[in-house]
Amino acid sequence: MQNKLTQLQKNIAASKGAVVAYSGGVDSTFLAWVAHRILRDKVLMVTAISPLHPRSEQEFSIELAKQFCFPQQVIRTNELEDKLFIANPPQRCYYCKKAFFSTLKKIAAEKGFTDVFDGTNYDDLTDFRPGMQAAKELGIKSPLAQVKLTKAEIRSLSKQYNLPTWDKPSFACLASRIPYGEQITAEKLARVEQAELFLRTLSLKQLRVRCHGNLARVEVIPAEHSKILAAAAEINAYFKKLGFLYVTLDLQGYRTGSMNEQLENF
User: Are 104 and 141 in contact (CB under 8 A)?
Assistant: First the structure.
């Protein structure tokens, strides 16, 4: 693991300036921290503000950047104006990332920087992530994946260097809660955001609320199913206020990319 970190530092040091796609998550925060230590004033963290990202996550990324004195630029993105994106095909992330990374490349060019970095880790390479194709087409670099740093290793290194994100739950944009083929709207995204915000008051380690029309499918790790069942009445009442008619608990439990299980139908 330390050899991977050493190689990561060497690779970043070879850059003549970089924009980092920074969300405040485990991977992008670690990458931002390493890049800032090495490149200093030749790095800029860029954070997207949009309905795809919960306000709490956006605020966290800004506060964390202040804490570590990261140079940061916040931009507003307009995914919901893209008809290809809101149609929600399996390639949805491609359209989103292509627009976002194109913007980052323009910012990098304006700063005189040569590179754009994203926080893709080595584990991500085995998952269905159409956004990676957009990154490849635009020449975006993934320094963590390049040196084969896994999620577990990034968490371990983050803990070693006292980064508060070392045990932060994994997060994906809110659009990932909506089944492929079902149109993405601001209303659906806001409903999911509020539902997940409510569940976080139960001190759950990891959760997702998948939105299947008027049905909410709650995913938490199996060991915490009891917390959901103990608060079932309160959860049901709150979710119905949000507009859900039915609330279910997924017995298989939380897993990343569960919506990809339907890909064989496309």
Answer: no
Q: How far apart are CA 209 and CA 90, in angstroms?
A: 19
3-state secondary structure of 215: strand
For the chain, the helix, strand and coil percentages under 3-state DSSP, each to the nearest 5: 55, 15, 30
- Whole-angstrom Cα distance, residue 154 to residue 9? 14
> Contact 116/19 with Cβ under 8 angstroms?
yes
* Distance separating alpha carbons of residues 155 and 168, to the nearest angstrom: 9
Low-confidence ranges of the chain (pLDDT < 50): none
> Which residues neighbour 64 within 8 Å (Cβ) at sequence distance 6 or greater?
24, 29, 70, 164, 165
Residue 209 bridge partners (DSSP): 218
Q: What is the pTM (predicted TM-score) of this model?
A: 0.91
Alpha-carbon gap, residue 130 to 95, rounded angstroms: 9
Rounded distance between C-alpha atoms, residue 188 and residue 186, angstroms: 6
pLDDT of residue 263: 67
CB proximity list for 200: less than 8 A, separation 6 or greater? 207
Determine the residue type at 126: T
Q: Are 196 and 207 in contact (CB under 8 A)?
A: yes
pLDDT score of 2? 86
Query: What is the Cα–Cα distance from 245 to 255, expressed in whole angstroms?
Result: 24
